[in-house]
């Protein structure tokens, strides 16, 4: 609660600085698997931060609202939300009917995300450095590893829009400059087991909700790691060529949905 409240205080300050006024009310999102006591603790954290929590909504629900899926068509619609961030991975199956959301199932891995992909590139570069420099090992040098990790994460991001990335670090270790070229294909190879493993929770979520993948009307991609082309293509392939919704910045989709919900609750339905 205390840590959450510190984050909410920071968010309140950020919002006030941007809007140039005071912010008292908020819609706060939580993972769909949160139980009642976790939701209450989140509300309490808001109170500690001096915020009036108008409503707690599920993150996948917020993402669906961001895409306007509750307004899209009449009748019941099944929506799968694939949410992969920096350290966690969540899959949720929602049904939407007449603007009412129901979470049918959730699955995921609390230890899978972008950091794991960074680690694979770091390991690859450490071996590469060792091979090029007569067995010199970076393992014990924290500063070198920190610098390497920063560049590896940058390369990973580059590979979401380019097919090649270059990692260049001056005087990485013992005065030795390090350069490495990494292709998107090699990156995919390094992380393929992680990408494949992410499909397990998707299948489990469908199984638990009793919904066949052919009956899923919409797939929504959330979280920074869903920018990775291989992740997108695997999901599209799994859903028989159905293109996922990914036009909204995946880092912001949940917050955008929460903002839309807040506007509805406060009667400020303007585009702002």
From TrEMBL:
It comes from Oxyrrhis marina (Dinoflagellate). This is Heat shock protein 70. Residues 138-165 form a coiled coil. It comes from the Eukaryota. Keywords: ATP-binding, Coiled coil, Nucleotide-binding. The keyword Nucleotide-binding applies. InterPro entries: ATPase_NBD (IPR043129), Heat_shock_70_CS (IPR018181), Hsp_70_fam (IPR013126). GO terms for molecular function: ATP binding; ATP-dependent protein folding chaperone.
């Amino acid at each position: 609660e205390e840590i959450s409240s510190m984050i909410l205080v920071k968010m309140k300050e950020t919002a006030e600085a941007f809007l140039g006024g005071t912010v008292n009310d908020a819609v706060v999102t939580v993972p769909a698997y949160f139980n009642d006591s976790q939701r209450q603790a989140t509300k309490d954290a808001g109170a500690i931060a001096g915020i009036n929590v108008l409503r707690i909504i599920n993150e996948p629900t917020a993402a669906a609202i961001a895409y306007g899926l509750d307004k899209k068509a009449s009748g019941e619609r099944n929506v799968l939300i694939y949410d992969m961030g920096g350290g966690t991975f969540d899959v949720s199956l929602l049904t939407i009917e007449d603007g009412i959301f129901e979470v049918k199932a959730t699955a995921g891995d609390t230890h899978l995300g972008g950091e794991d992909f960074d680690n694979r590139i770091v390991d690859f570069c450490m071996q590469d450095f060792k091979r090029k420099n007569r067995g010199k090992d970076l393992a014990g040098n924290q500063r070198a590893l920190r610098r390497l990790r920063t560049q590896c994460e940058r390369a990973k991001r580059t590979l979401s829009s380019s097919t090649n990335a270059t990692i260049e670090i001056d005087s990485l270790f013992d005065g030795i400059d390090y350069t490495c070229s990494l292709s998107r294909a090699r990156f995919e190879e390094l992380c393929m087991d992680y990408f494949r493993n992410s499909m397990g929770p998707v299948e489990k979520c469908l199984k638990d909700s009793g919904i066949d993948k052919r009956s899923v009307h919409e797939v929504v991609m959330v979280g920074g790691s869903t920018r990775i082309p291989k992740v997108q293509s695997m999901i599209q392939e799994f859903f028989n060529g159905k293109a996922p919704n990914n036009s909204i910045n995946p880092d912001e989709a949940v917050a955008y949905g929460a903002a839309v919900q807040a506007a509805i609750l406060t009667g400020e339905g303007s585009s702002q």
